[in-house]
Amino acid sequence: MEWWMQFCHLLLGGPKLKEGLGGPDPLDYVSMYRNVGSPSANIPEHWHYISFGLSDLYGDSRVHEFTGTDGPSGFGFELTFRLKRETGESAPPTWPAELMQGLARYVFQSGPIMTVPDPTPRSEGAGEVEQMPEFWLWTCRPKNTFCSGDHVSWHSPLDNSESRIQHMLLTEDPQMQPVQTPFGVVTFLQIVGVCTEELHAAQQWNGQGILELLRMVPIAGGPWLITDMRRGETIFEIDPHLQERVDKGIETDGSNLSGVSAKCAWDDLSRPPEDDEDSRSICIGTQPRRLSGKDTEQIRETLRRGLEINSKPVLPPINPQRQNGLTHDRAPSRKDSLESDSSTAIIPHELIRTRQLESVHLKFNQESGALIPLCLRGRLLHGRHFTYKSITGDMAITFVSTGVEGAFATEEHPYAAHGPWLQILLTEEFVEKMLEDLEDLTSPEEFKLPKEYSWPEKKLKVSILPDVVFDSPLH
Asked: What is the dihedral sign for C-alpha 40, 41, 46, 48?
């Protein structure tokens, strides 16, 4: 690649022995370069970091299983990062290499069901990392890979300073094109540092839309999305009109976030308190109820088949049109689905055990509760579904709209549970009512806990509780 000649190779940072070979870190090394940029194109001089080790560097199955030259090499991608070079800086900071190691460790070590956002018609979903103490973006993917448009909640300045840049989006590297290697294909995903407000906008709308706005603002990234850790303003503070773009996008497209791992719980209020034989609230008694293996696989399969971008468009399920390698949904009138769009639906394990409930009490911590308006406005009003997966117990809460197929909650029986998996079906009219009543959830600075909302006519209660309630072994 001719453009590579403009770089001055400065440093290779990596562990003596990588994790897959018995060492402490997953990456073999991180290569660091100085890029002179292009002032005429609003591309400042910067440091360019490239990881080595997420793809297969050996081809001998010691670290990655070799699947053939036509498939992905290893996980199929490497990470890159572009950091604005400060005046007088003669060597690249090394903290981005540690950041990459943390993200790579998540990919290598996480199980098959972890924390990634719902794929959009323009991207697959993103992963969360083990450092996140509160809640993680969640849905299902066979491997915890990262894809363009993903967003990663970090909740801490990326360089451990006082910076407002505390989260990440992922996109295609503007220079590094996919490479065919002897061990498969490798793509290059660039980490883009963002502020909390920008992350929230990506969650409420989608990552690709926010990335495009960042490209429009030179100080916030510009054409090559270069991270400036000294940036003190969000794109919405720099240009207030951009918030209108986001609001319009949410109204038109909805949100691509299908669920989160959260501090949450639910109670069946239609049962007497002493009747806990089949209660599915978490942490009743000394041990939390657990999803059976088949129940867990049902949740995995319904989310994977309904949401996974490589085989199905996000929502609604239509025959996808491919454009620049990405899938776009062209038929918003079709229904969302919690099942495959094949002729054979996924049948829940032991379907006869699915229970219809008369009254339900939902419990969330403040951070996960603050996403309820997003769930309602960005998902259910667009005919979609949204799942809260507990991180303190083995249970899940899925909100579904009347346009979702394959749900076991129905308009006749809107509250239904299959083991510890609760589904709640909400009509559009009730969603609008809830949005009106839950408006104060969007102003957390004015929020006092505990907070309770109740709709007696619907036999539904929602409580926003302090974190300590969910951290306790009994609650």
From this structure: negative
CA distance 446 to 349: 44
CB–CB of 402/413 below 8 Å?
A: no
Phi, psi of 389 (to 5 degrees): -110, 120
- Residue 301 CB: number of other CB atoms within 10 A? 16
Q: What separation in angstroms does the CA of 209 have from each of 82, 120, 150, 151, 256?
A: 20, 11, 11, 12, 11
Amino acid at 262: A
> What domains lie within the chain, and their CATH numbers?
9-111+143-253 (no CATH), 257-273+353-474 (3.30.1360.230)
Q: List, for residues 162-193, the tens digit of each pLDDT value.
A: 999 999 999 999 999 999 999 999 999 999 99
Count of C-beta atoms within a 10 Å radius of residue 185: 16
Report how far residue 106's alpha carbon sits from residue 123's, in angstroms, rounded to the nearest whole number.
20
State pTM to two decimals.
0.70
- Residue for token pair 């689905």: 337
